Amino acid sequence: MSNKSVAEIHLNPTRHGLDTETRQSAVELLNARLADAIDLELQAKQAHWNVKGPNFIGLHELFDKVAAAAAAFKDEIAERAVMLGGVAVGTAQAVVERTTLAPYPVEAQDWKSHVDGVSSALAKFGTALRQGIEDADELDDAVTADLLTGIAHEVDKYMWFVEAHRG
After folding, report:
1. Superfamily of domain 19-166 in the CATH hierarchy
2. Has residue 4 got a pLDDT over 70?
3. Structural domain spans, the chain
């Protein structure tokens, strides 16, 4: 595949019940959230590898769980895009271009900075997911809305777990 944007990628034939325009819009929405999920996974791993301090082991393990959950989210999101006849675009270049998450503070050393960084990424992803739910509802794509709702629930749970360390 060349440097085509997601909007330029044609859908594959499918007997899916949603019309082509709806499927195209849903695939674009899903690819936007795919970029965020991949970015979240990488940000959580950055925190996992570099966290230090008295809460080290708890946060080290928690950040790894966030990364693993994000890996599962990206797979579910990508598979839904392909189910709709689309192409899941999860390249590094696409993630850099499309993520809505703020860049992770790679200079972060202390555990508080990592808690703030990961909780900020989770909050931004959760907000984007809720907008995606609304957008999928407007498209009458209940399955995509349901998928994003389930992911948003998990993101909220992990944000709660991470924010509990803020004190």
Report:
1. Ferritin, core subunit, four-helix bundle (1.20.1260.10)
2. no
3. 19-166
Helical pair 56-83 and 20-50, crossing angle rounded to 10 deg: 160
Residue 90, pLDDT score? 96
User: For the whole prediction, is pTM greater than 0.90?
Assistant: yes
Confidence bin at 161 (pLDDT 50/70/90): very high
Structure token pair of residue 33: 């959230």
